[in-house]
Design a protein that fits this description.
alpha/beta; seven-stranded parallel β-sheet
């Protein structure tokens, strides 16, 4: 595995990337890996701790991605700082665990705003920036919940299902401009996404991941590896794909 990583250590060299939800977890791993492999990176997050990622070639942006103008600003930072935008990774996501009968409209709309609407807005602005250069790659971080469900995650499954369909539709609209749009159906990953839901989010995910055929949850870097490939020219024939990286969870679901 070390040799394989070394071979592709410059796979995104010279490219400019924008990563949302970059302060921690999968987003942080993606931002750092793309940077390490030669990309200039704009790392966007509502959490001010994203500023700790600042270094030459990596610019943090503190913003609420659901707000009007946030996507336009983040794309403008990439273009102003680095001259172009080649890669967008819509990684930011949140979850709520409530039965539908207990969920408020505000609960529902908050999940859609972050997981689906903000991704749409960033896709729209990224494609606008990519069309003149006739190239680009968008990778949306979807979920195994794009395809199956269990009780209490209706808002999350709806948002991730929407993200998968946004990926497919935009892929058809963008490929004529040389822009590839794909997604990853992520399974349980050791992150803090559940910290507002359970006492110890990573511990819960580690335990839940044991139910997958692989018998464990993923490390954020394992997902970042797939993003780096899909964002690179090595994935030049991938268009509108939702690649499952869930330890086999969807193979056994249902």
């Amino acid at each position: 595995m070390t040799q394989n990583i070394a071979i592709h250590q410059d796979e995104v060299a010279g490219k400019v990337a924008l990563v949302t939800g970059a302060a921690s977890g999968i987003g942080r791993a993606i931002a750092l890996m793309l940077h390490a492999r030669g990309a200039k990176v704009v790392a966007e997050d509502i959490d001010g701790s994203v500023e700790a990622l600042a270094r030459p070639g990596l610019v943090p942006v503190v913003a609420d991605i659901t707000q009007d103008g946030a996507a336009e600003h983040a794309v403008a930072v990439a273009v102003d700082q680095f001259g172009r935008l080649d890669i967008l990774v819509n990684n930011a996501g949140i979850i709520i665990n409530k039965l539908v009968v207990d969920m408020t409209r505000a609960d529902w709309e908050r999940i859609q705003a972050v997981n689906a609407t903000a991704a749409f807005l960033h896709c729209r602005e990224a494609v606008k920036a990519m069309i003149p250069q006739k190239s680009g790659a968008i990778v949306n971080i979807a979920s195994y919940a794009s395809y199956f469900a269990f009780p209490t995650i209706a808002a999350y499954t709806a948002s991730k299902g929407a993200l998968a369909q946004l990926t497919r539709t935009l892929a058809l609209e963008a490929i004529g401009h040389g822009i590839r749009v794909n997604a990853i159906g992520v399974g349980d990953v050791l992150t803090n996404i559940l910290d507002d839901v359970v006492e110890d989010g990573p511990a819960f995910l580690a335990e839940h991941g044991q139910g997958a055929p692989i018998g464990r949850a993923a490390q954020p870097e394992e997902i970042a590896e797939i993003v780096a490939f899909m964002a690179s020219d090595r994935a030049s024939f991938m268009v509108g794909a939702v690649v499952m990286a869930d330890g086999g969870m969807t193979v056994t679901a249902g």
